[in-house]
Amino acid sequence: MSRFFFLLREAFVNLKRNFLVVAGAVLAVFISLSLAFGALVVNEILRINTLAWQEGVHVIAFLRDEGSGGVPPGAHQALLDEVQTWEEVNGAFYVDKAQAWVEYQEIFAGQEELLEIDPTILPASIRIELVAIELHQSVKFKLEQQQQVVLNVSTAAEQIEQLQNLSNVLNVLGIGMAVVLGVSAVVLIANTIRLAIYARRDEVEIMKLVGASNWYIRIPFLLEGLIEGVVGAALAVFTVWLGATRLARASEGFALFRLDVSNQFFLRWGLLFIIFGAAAGVIGSLLGLSRYLREADGTGEEIPTGAA
Amino acid sequence: MIRLEHVTKVYEGGSVAARDISLDIQKGEFVFLVGPSGSGKSTLIRLMLRDEGVTRGKIWVAGKDITTLPKWKIPYLRRSVGTVFQDYKLLPNKTVAENVSFALEVLGRPRSVIGPQVEQVLDLVGLADMAGRYPRQLSGGEQQRVSVARAFVNRPPIMLADEPTGNLDPKTSVGIMKLLDRINRTGTTIVMATHDFAIVDAMQRRVVALEKGVVTRDEHSGRYEQEQT
């Protein structure tokens, strides 16, 4: 146990002594993991919004007024009843002309010139929620067959589908970016540790001279890498969390696009990133040390017999 | 204690540092390796420490064949062999006491043992009152005493010294040699590479002379130069 504390103390002394090199390594981890974590958060925001939009209305069928243009009374209710039986439809509800006017007034509140219209021109509508977003074309087609009652069909499904595709692309990009940045973090740490070892090669040589095993020499460096990785990753997670929280707070009341990511997400992924940072630090240190310790063994230069 | 059997060391490029050397060094002996620069003295020290591998031959240290020692066992060999070098090889950011205790930390000795042992050895080398100083605050002779203290702190049966007085003035060199002689009297086998003839002549111990990697003379109670008959 005392040996472990000795090695831990050595690691902290080295971190303090090589402050600039350590700061460089922490910065490298911080930047690469901030970018990776940021990409993940953006991806999550897109996912949340796609889901939110999907939960709303996908298709709106605007209806001709009953009693005019050959639309018999009760036609709206009949169409609503029929739509509700369609297997593509998860739910549907009717918005009459009076409700449409109320909705219109809410949307354009404060814009007096837009409110000076004849409320009777606003059509009644059927709002439809689909079972799956990709079914929008089939429902639209069916509604357009009802030309006698249906004035026109409006659907947000195409935009949602595009967003979903974008989200999928971003997902792949995000994962790819996280992998690339993760590998860069490992390489950067490995190089930083290698530089640190190069600067302290005499020390390593003396350690070997007094009989320190390779692992004994490695452990303080591994602890250094671990600490650098954890600190860099924690800083990255904290910075992205702070940025995302501030942004979400600033965008409160902006109904079209949600920016609030749950704390649970930050906790789960934040922890994973910190573990990744720690692993990157340890792997980087191992890579950085391996070559140097192999060279320091000084036993690799045997000349084949007969050379004399 | 140390046995070399037909040891040959050839470096890359073909230069021969040791050619078919056989030596038998008994427990408690004090052996000087003498010879001009490039004669192979330092190479022999490095071979005995397994800092380098042999090209041919066998080396036994404390009964173990170190030429076939697996890499992971080399640290164990070094823990039983104290080493002193011309350039002291002290850790600049550690104090005198920390430099000496480091050799015991590596062995995993508890703090309760390290403290008194370091104190004792610093007393032996006459640096008890400088325990808290850093190497840069010491003279060359004092730094070499720290190096000797570190080499001896875990009471190794063998001590290898490569030109330990090479950087020191004659008076300071005598002090270091007295120290090594004292350590030798405790039963520690000492092998010392040097080209300081005054020391070799004054000590009158076993002398192994090397020239171009070949043993040219091996004398008990010898001198630096062969006496003319």
What does this structure look like?
The complex is a heterodimer of chains A (308) and B (229). Chain A contains 10 helices and 4 strands. Chain A has helices at residues 2-17, 19-55, 75-85, 97-107, 112-115, 136-144, 157-199, 201-209, 214-250, 263-296, and strands at 59-63, 89-95, 125-130, 150-155. A 4-stranded antiparallel β-sheet of chain A has the order 2-3-1-4. The two termini of chain A are 50 Å apart. Residues 295-308 of chain A have low confidence and may be disordered. In chain B, the strands form 2 sheets. Chain B has a 6-stranded mixed β-sheet with strand order 6-7-8-3-9-10, with helices on both faces. A 4-stranded antiparallel β-sheet of chain B has the order 2-1-4-5, with helices on one face. In chain B, 33% of the residues lie in helices and 26% in strands. Chain B is globular and about 45 Å long. In chain B, helix 6 links the parallel strand 7 (158-162) and strand 8. With 229 residues, chain B is of the alpha/beta class. In chain B, helix 4 packs across helix 5 (140-152). Chains A and B meet through helix 1 and helix 8 of A and helix 2 and helix 3 of B.
